[in-house]
Structures are given as structure tokens and as C-alpha cells.
Write a structure and sequence with these properties.
It is a single chain. This protein is mainly beta. Helices cover 7% and strands 57% of the residues. It is globular.
């Protein structure tokens, strides 16, 4: 088997985001919540993605850490470490501070809403984003589905995103069936192709997966062993989604 680090580079860039599974949250007296996810490459567990969301002076503070390790014959062939702190105000990103080690490649993103624009600084320099409301891939805030561009918290790219509503679909988490609404996010130029599901009754975020180089990257909350798509479209079963559309 030949492992391609490029597939994890793409996936990590997609998943360097805020992730929420409301059923796994644990609230404290200060209304903070912690979420812990298992990260799978195909059926192999490769790491974790954890975050804590709390409120501070009316703002939402999100603290994120991710740790991936892919091994082959006991040797680590890919590693990924990501920490990120975001401040959200009135439904929009107000500030971001992230650091990433992507298999030895270092990234840093610092950003701040300056009022008229959003200023982003990376190792490649500084620029202003001309947008009234900047958002990262913030799955916990479904308003991001109405955005046409999203900020990549790993490298600071302001990416154009296509959002496609996929309708209703049943998922099975272990032995529990859940009615969901499915959405697909894509950026063809960067090879981003993400599917996310929300509970049809409550709107809470449930699961995420992406196909890269013929493999599946999947996030499952701690305590959930398996996830199965019960109503997967036939076309998706016959043709991998990473193939170029005609």
C-alpha cells in the first residue's frame, strides 16, 4: 500500500474548523461545552479533534485542537497538529489565532475584524478580506451555509464554496437511526468535497465526511463506533466523488 500525504493535507485543511455534535456536549456552570471526536481514515482511527466553546462578554469563544497520526508497519508516515482560538461576535468571526504543523510544514493565521474589513496575517503576508461577515468552516453555526466564501483557518485562504442541499437522508449511528438533512460543500480547484449532516428535527450538526483520492475521511463523536448511510444515492455508490465531473 502506498500512502499519499496529499489526501490528509486536503482533508486537514477542510477539517481545521469548528465541529459540533450537540448530543456529546457537557455543559458546566459557566455554560462552556466540550466536544471530542474520533477521526477515521477509511476504517482506521488516526487521531482526535477536540474543542471547547464558551461565552465571554457576550461573544462565543471557540478553542480547538486536532492531532492526527497515520502509521504504516509501525512507522508514522504522516502527522498533523492544529490549535486554533476563535472569537465570534454577532454571528460573525471577530478574531482568529491558529497554529498548524502539517507533517513538518508550519502555518500561522492571525485575523481581526477591523470594522470596514477583516485583516488576515499569514506567513505569506497581510491582506484585507472584503466581506461584511467573515466565517470559517463553522458547522456549529448553520448560517455559514448561506456564505459563498469561507476562511480556511489552517492557511488563511478565503475560499469560494459551492453549497448544495442534498435533501433528507437517514443515518445509523451504531444501532440508532436518525433522520437528517444533508449538505455538500465543494471547491473544485482545491479538491474540497465535504458532506455534512444535520438532525432533521433539531437542526443540530451530526457528522461529516469527505472522499479524497478514493478514501474516506470521517469524523465520529466519542462513544459512536460506526456510522452508516441508509439512503445513499446510487450514483454516489457507483462513482467516487473525487472523480472530475464531466
Amino acid at each position: 500500500m502506498q500512502f499519499k500525504p496529499s489526501l490528509l493535507r486536503i482533508a486537514a485543511a477542510c477539517f481545521a474548523v469548528t465541529l459540533v455534535f450537540a448530543g456529546q456536549a457537557q455543559a458546566s456552570a459557566t455554560s462552556s461545552k466540550e466536544f471530542r471526536f474520533r477521526v477515521l481514515l477509511n476504517d482506521d482511527e488516526i487521531g482526535t479533534h477536540n474543542f471547547r466553546v464558551s461565552r465571554e462578554a457576550g461573544d462565543e469563544i471557540v478553542e480547538i485542537d486536532a492531532d492526527f497520526r497515520v502509521t504504516f508497519l509501525g512507522i508514522t508516515v504522516y502527522s498533523y497538529d492544529h490549535v486554533n482560538r476563535e472569537r465570534w461576535r454577532n454571528g460573525c468571526l471577530d478574531q482568529i489565532d491558529s497554529r498548524t504543523d502539517d507533517n513538518g510544514d508550519k502555518f500561522a493565521v492571525d485575523g481581526k475584524d477591523r470594522g470596514e474589513d477583516f485583516e488576515v496575517s499569514t506567513q505569506d503576508g497581510q491582506r484585507q478580506l472584503d466581506a461584511n461577515c467573515v466565517m470559517t468552516f463553522a458547522y456549529w453555526n448553520r448560517d455559514y451555509l448561506s456564505q459563498t466564501r469561507l476562511l480556511n483557518s489552517q492557511n488563511g485562504e478565503f475560499l469560494e464554496i459551492e453549497v448544495e442541499a442534498g435533501g433528507l437522508e437517514r443515518l445509523r449511528f451504531d444501532e440508532q437511526q436518525v433522520a437528517t438533512e444533508r449538505y455538500r460543500l465543494r471547491n473544485r480547484e482545491r479538491g474540497i468535497d465535504i458532506t455534512v449532516w444535520y438532525a432533521a428535527d433539531t437542526g443540530r450538526w451530526l457528522c461529516l465526511e469527505s472522499r479524497v483520492d478514493g478514501r474516506v475521511i470521517r469524523y465520529l463523536p466519542e462513544g459512536v463506533a460506526t456510522m452508516a448511510r441508509l439512503d445513499q444515492p446510487v450514483a454516489e455508490k457507483l462513482a467516487p466523488r473525487d472523480m472530475v465531473d464531466p
